Amino acid sequence: MKATSVTAASNGMDKLIALLKRRGFVYPSSEIYGGLSGFYDFGPLGVALKRNIENLWWRMFVENREDMYGVDASLITAAPVLKASGHLDGFADPLVECEKCKRRFRADHVEGDKCPDCKGNLGTARAFNMMLKTSLGAVEDESSTAYLRPETAQGIFVNFKNIIDTFHPRLPFGVAQIGKAFRNEIAPRDFLFRVREFTQMEVEYFVRPNDWQEHFELWRKAMLEWIEKIGISINSVHEAEIGDGDRAHYSQRTIDFEFDYPFGRKELYGLAYRTDYDLTAHTKGSGTELNYFDEDSKERFVPHVIEPSFGVERTMLAVLLSAHKEDEMNGEKREYLALPSAIAPVKAAVFPLLKNKPELVKKAREIYTELKKTEPRIVFDDNGNIGKRYRRQDEIGTPYCVTVDFETLENNTATLRNRDTGEQKRVSPTDLFKEISQ
Ligand code: ATP
């Protein structure tokens, strides 16, 4: 396996990638062994950011709605499922190999017929199936072959009947899932953008066939609302209607939400009209009828599907690129992450002004403990001087810092500092929670 060094993959993102490594957000996977191309690990702050994004998505698209059901299906998928869905035969990218240096590329990612690295001739393109194969049990033969799922969607379709039988939902309704997907990408690149193991947040939204356009439009708006809420710069997002020849095999309409990454305008999310393709395919493949009985009209039919699909790593990258800023504060250069408070790994940091004054430390600890009862994303820090502490918190995107000083002991107010403006105001401990929750 070829190693990806953190900087080699950076592509215009060196400073951000260095910050994310230095501060414990993202590490190259198996780094002490030279790395594994297309895989990354999340450190303590990265996992916090990732979970906050996933939790916010789940709250917005599942918990806050009455028409959504969650599932968590297995990552290993039986081969017949992927045969029926079309992935075994059709989930392939065009691969070309350089005749000189033997490097492989995705044919649709290179211009012309020369190798981008050594200018050698590229051979003819062939289909390369991107699914990762594994084998179950002690005997390795065709019947033991299974696959790591290439998308979370199929785990939803194969549970369609279970949801119907257990919950008797009325159309329209959706089934949502957050989980890992695996693709043996020919050329993983651009840091978290194209990896071989990633997390998807997907909804399969089941509608009456005639209503698909209305729901496609509602989901388009919901996706834009999410993009703004999560802190992705909306001016850098563009909708692209995917033409007839370029859509996935199951889709009759697709919009890609593209983002202006430093390495170009590329897909962030997809919204697809999957028709009744999957339920019909699994009915054929499994012999189990996957359809819906309408109590009002007494009709039985196969619902159609709208699929909004969100990649977590691409979300993190777009959020981090949107939040990564440099400015000058108090005459000094500063690099910081202007993350929205809802997803910042740390919401507020509490400091005693001086580490060696027990009365300040005691009071700061009290405030920290009190805040942490209702908001877990609070940290305590008494290392270094106050300027350095502010710097450290700015760099990881903490929206607020609370400093306990001598005045706190007199009038019970602490200073509350805003990350983006550097402005400070005095706030009583009882109001602190209200302020940092904004
Ligand atoms: P691309 O054309 O960039 O390969 P795709 O069209 O194959 O992407 P979809 O099959 O629509 O992607 O997958 C849904 C979502 O999953 C994408 O919008 C993206 O957010 C995410 N995703 C897909 N492939 C990857 C990958 N290799 N690394 C990270 N995220 C991915």
Keywords:
alpha+beta, BirA Bifunctional Protein, domain 2, five-stranded mixed beta sheet, disordered N terminus, Rossmann fold, seven-stranded mixed beta sheet, 438 residues, 13 helices, binds adenosine-5'-triphosphate
Structural overview:
The protein is built from 13 helices and 24 strands. A seven-stranded mixed beta sheet has the order 3-10-11-17-14-13-12. Strands 21-20-22-23-24 form a five-stranded mixed beta sheet, with helices on both faces. It has a three-stranded antiparallel beta sheet with strand order 4-9-8. Among the domains are: 44-79 and 149-320, BirA Bifunctional Protein, domain 2; 346-436, Rossmann fold. Residues 1-9 have low confidence and may be disordered. By secondary structure, the protein is α+β, with helices and mostly antiparallel strands. Strand 18 (324-329) and strand 19 form a beta hairpin. Helix content is 31%, strand content 29%. Adenosine-5'-triphosphate is lined by residues 183, 185, 194-195, 198, 200, 267, 269-270, 309, 311, 313-314.
Topology diagram in text:
Layout: H1 14-22, E1 26-28, E2 40-42, H2 44-63, E3 68-70, E4 76-78, H3 79-85, H4 87-90, E5 92-97, E6 104-106, E7 126-129, E8 132-135, E9 145-148, H5 153-157, H6 160-167, E10 173-182, E11 197-207, H7 212-229, E12 237-241, E13 253-261, E14 264-275, H8 277-286, E15 292-294, E16 299-301, E17 304-311, H9 312-323, E18 324-329, E19 332-337, E20 348-352, H10 358-374, E21 378-380, H11 386-396, E22 400-404, H12 406-411, E23 414-418, E24 424-427, H13 429-436
Parallel strand pairs: 3-10, 20-21, 20-22
Antiparallel strand pairs: 1-2, 4-9, 5-6, 5-7, 8-9, 10-11, 11-17, 12-13, 13-14, 14-17, 15-16, 18-19, 22-23, 23-24
Helix pairs in contact: 2-9, 3-8
Adenosine-5'-triphosphate binds next to strand 11, strand 14, strand 17 and helix 9.
